[in-house]
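Sample 1 of the test manifest.
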Amino acid sequence: MVVKRRNWITHIILIVLAIVILFPIVWVVSTSLRRDNAAFSTKLFSSRLSLQNYKDLLFPEQNVLRLLKDIESITTNSLPYTDKPYDDLISKFNSDIEGLKKYSVETKSLLATTDKEYENIQKFITDNSKELIASLVENANLIKEKSKENKPDEEKLYVALNVLLKEGNLKERDIDDYFDLNKVKEFEKKWEDLFLNLSDNINKKENEIKTVENQINLLKKDLDFYQKEYTRMLNVIRESIYPQFLSFKDTLVVALDILKNSDSSVKVFVSESNEMEEFEKTRNYLKKLSNAKFTDEFSDLFEVIQRLNNLADEVLSVWKSFPDKSSSKYADFLSTIRLFNLKASKQLKESVDIINNFSDIVDNYLEKSNLLSALSKKLEEDKSEFEKLKSEYENKKLEINDAEKFVYSVILENKVKSFVSKIEKYSLPKDIRKTYFAIKSLRTSLNNYLSYIDDDVKRKELRVYFRNMDWVETYMNLEKRYETFSKNMKAFLEEFDKYVDSIEGIGPNAIRSAKNGIKIRISALSQLFPKIQSDYPVKIASNLSLASKLAVNLIDYLPLKGANPSLKVIDKKLFRIDQIWKEKTDHHLIRWILNSVIVAGLVAIITTLVNALAAYPFSRMRFRGRKYGIMSLLLIQMFPAIMYMVALYGFLSFLGRYIPFLGLNTLGGLIFVYLGGIAFNMYLIKGFYDTIPSSLEEAAMIDGATRWQTFWRIVLPLASPILAVVIILSFMGTFNEFVLARIILQDVEKYTYAVGLWTFSTGPFETEWGLFSAAALIGMAPMVILFLSMQKYLVGGLTKGSVKG
Amino acid sequence: MILIPPFLKYAGGDAMTRVWKFIGWILLALFNAFSIWGALFLFQKGFYELSITFFVLIVLIDFFIFNRKSYPFRYMIPAIILLFILVLYPIAFTIKTAFTNYGTGHIMTRQEVVDRLLTDPVYTYVPNDAKEYNYEVFVEFNGIEPTDDFKLIVITPNGDKYIMGEIKSIRVQAGKMLLGEANLKEIDDYNLIKEGDKIIAIVDEDKTYRYFYSPDDIDTAINEVFFKSKIGFPLLSKVEIVDFQGNRLSMRFSEDGTLRLKSIRHLYRLSLSEVVENGKNVVKTVLVNDITNKPLLEENGTFYDFDENGEKKPVMGYISYVGTKNFSQIFTDPTISGPFMKIFLWNFTYAALSVLFTFVIGLSFALVLNNNSLKGRSLYRTLLIIPWAIPAFISVLIWKNGFFNETYGIINKFIVSGLFNKESIQWMTNPFWAKVAVLIVNTWLGFPYMMTVSLGALQSIPDELYEAASIDGASKGQRFWKITFPLLMTTVAPLLIGSFAFNFNNFVNIYLLTSGGPAIPNTSTPAGATDILISYTYKLAFEAGRGQDFGFASAISILIFFIVAGISFVNFRISGSFEEVNR
């Protein structure tokens, strides 16, 4: 029948989709039960399951370190034991010591078990040595079979051998046994024809490129220097020389002006002076300057210099032709010139040097940069030529690729042969190290061969055969790790017992002394702490966890399954030992859940009662503001409630000063803030009231009941189903609230479950998936069960009232 | 005549009721007394808005109780109390804040800031012509141990000696004295024990203070550390000693590391100045820098001082009204408007796509499950509803931690690189993929709701319609588009809009999954690529990384309110919720 068949398909699709959609839940459940570190595991699921995460969260075990801390508190009579009488302290102390001894005994018996199982494994390996080696041989032979290649023609083969030898990939002794070295020599000529020239050229080009690159680097350094000098000089000229020249120009203009234009008939005595000779000298510098080379950037400077030159010429000519050499005019002129000489002669001389220097630098700079561009061009050419040669070489090599592959396959084949003949003599586990090194040497040959294989499938296949031999390495490491662990742990336990004895002896005295006000830290105790906190993780736990991991890996790798039960036992017992000894962080999950339940419960009950009251007049009475009351209630809900916190934060911190349980960082304050969300479910309750026939109330009123009595005695009991639903809805809503709780609560112990779980997903716990998922599941399960079991009622309320949040 | 409240007058007759009414009456009186006291107390402490809220509440409640006509409102009194304090007051506060610059750097009122600038020891300086006073410290000993109970003798440059009187606290913060003041007293008022000219002890009441330390007395150098750490620095450096001329002296560290008593001056003083404001000359109190004699500039709610080079330096900010700046900067400030528009658009896209995806998937499931001949429908329904049943924050954390983590997350580890051999997807650092992640999670969370709703709507469509249609020869597609979909939409459309409004403000999902990240570059506010308006607001107000800006956050939340209210208004129109109210 058609319909049936299609239903069948629908079922399959639905099931697949349901699995995909519910996968996060599956993941949470499976991860919470894993005892390996899921975040770092390469497997999605693991068979190493335990309830440890739940135990740690809900019923944390008083393991060794916790007991020791407890003993410390008892013996120093500090919190929480300050007020306990002496006898209680002694009995608690004795029970703690008892606990420590028990752990020591338990660890010893666990160790005895693992030691026995370890022996079993060794025995198993010894008993099955033949089979195990046979499996190695089989895999090696499979590699050999799979890596068989067709023999290429002789010429190609020997040319290829030559290439491999010359490139340094192979040594003569590597191929001595499998190929005729004489023949290789014979084909050397052929190789020379084909490759020698090319490879020589390539080498030459490579060297050339290197030299050019070196030259370019040197040049760049020089250019860098000139660049810096250039900018420096530029600055000097711009900032100091140019403005000086401008002022010189002005001085000369003034001098000329004095001589030419001013009209003075006062006679003065003018002594002979050599000012003008000096001036002529200065003028020569100017001449020199006007001949200097200038770049475009200095056209203005050049102009000034030209102008200065002209001016100086003019001054000289006017002076020479000046008639009255004893007028005050003449004297003024001379003193101006003197000043000019004083200022200018030295400056001009320096400027000439600087400008000459500058033009030198410019020349050098230009020269070098031209050189650089030439070299760069050459480098580019060289490089492209090099590439060409290289590709030519590669192409040629491509022709002998098969031959090279064949060479490596022959080498591999022979390596396998020698490997097989070697390990067939071995007996495990005695020769495990030798076996391991034999496998390791096989790996190099295999990898060389694999680099020539393009076929992914084949490559994978060969890798799988090789991986089938991995168990040798794993087993070898397990041996090493387990033996170190077992030895260290035994020594550690022996020492631990001594310490415990010492603590036990001194403890009661310390307690008595502490009770009398003199607190002694028991030295054995204070020495034992660092032993367990640092020695244990460094010397023991590291080996332990590795041994445990290797044991699990061995289950997968070992070709024979007989040892698996023993390996599993070892893994399990080692995990238990670690739980006893390692330092564990304290969690507050129970406290958080309790906080959440208190807060959500109170909020749900109070808001529901307030709502039930407030909804009544909206359903039964007619009054002004009824419509707007509901509308404004609906409107208020739309304001983003997070912003309330800005106002309420200050108010709460103020309130906390006078009413401590309502302040910030208190559950009371949080409850208070949550009560603001009352408007949410009123509509729902009002809707239900509407369905209760008012004839019931009318009858009661006729009998003399007041409005309040009809509400309290009749309407409210009738509405109890919807009230229950509303209580659950607001309980769930409050339980899920995160933001306000995060702002208000600061202490870890005061967190609600939502904030607490959030801390499990950040910071150092981000990768502690086991704890996180267990904590998530603990909070999630009751909620899901509640929701699903009350689906019928809740869904109606949720779809009618508000959307889930 | 005694005023009897109306509810007593008309009450029924028996004695028990009278007793109850009487108790109620007393409770009301107590409530009123307590609330008025509380309101006054709040007003005194500076919670003006809250105090007004209280007063309004008292008046309203009394009105409800005394006015017979407002009987229905008596049922709402508890709700109204909670609503006023926890909802209306915060809303009013938010609206007020939206027009101020309240936030980091602008925490105190102007008056508080002025007060602080005038008195805080931080804002004092030692003038160049400062006189240095010598001093001698006398300490009471507990056995051989010196205590921090001390007397101080101040020696003026002329050699006159005075004793420091009691310290009065002037400014206290959190129980710690910030600034104290003490007067000088004549030395003769005390009982002194002298050794020659030197005073070696002071006897006051039944305590003896022995000579302990003086900065220039080498014999007492051994006591210097104790004096500095127990008396000088923690206490005396915060005390100003006023001498008879009105000079203020205080302990300051000198270059050689000893505490010296120097005359100090406050950096700022009050003065009156004429300012032109709105075209009128107004006399205003201004703060003046005592060194430069220049008045402080007030701009944008901040006091600015000028240093020697005439450069403006902010001193302290206060809360001030900035008008509509918080709103207008959304459009005018390019470092805000760019990211804001991005957030705004993404907010709409996010809400719309969430509704679209959840509805399409939910409806598809509903159509499949609506088939009566399908066995185990309720089991499938229950299974598919589970994502809805799990508290949302738990699911989001699971997705974030286990699935979208870039290095360890199982999507990257097992699907992207494991199955398809691709490079890891940057779920948290690439804006596009972060958005995809947010949408995936939101769809997963939301489709069961849509499925349930659609299923309910589908079941209410009468079968006769389909029968009639199939008799008329309508195809399956026609039946869906012509009958199912229109009928479905009439019931589901309001819920879709409601869901849009909900997702528009779906803060928890965004915040827990990506925290709004990755950050948008080149902005002055903490905007992120997956931020929606509400998470952006939250970051502005509560994540102090770049400083809080309550003013701007309030402005945005008002904006959000109008958007959501607008959407909901449309929704009410469509669903006719108001008619229901009027029933």
